[in-house]
Amino acid sequence: MHGQANAVGRIGGDEFALLLWHASEEAAAEKMGDVDTYVAAAPLIFRGVPLSVRISWGVAGLRRGSSAESALEAADAALYAARTRRAARVTR
Fold it and tell me: What b/e readout covers 27-66, taking b as 16+ CB neighbours within 10 angstroms?
């Protein structure tokens, strides 16, 4: 497994998966925090109008004996929890 590159793929709609080989959940969460900060700081320009873009994300580890499906389900649950927290902050 050593030497494998990270991979990203579209799961569907506006959801993507980023696979970080040999990264702990803590390291993956830190990396996603960096991505979140970068995206928030770099507005998307659409037809000359800057648009603020935010992301919500969830992290889950793939452990020995677990399936990729269960890891994706755990990450998806964490994603929706993050979306709920973000929505609650916006409505305050």
Answer: ebeebbeeeeeeeeeeeeeeeeeeeeeebbbbbbebeeee
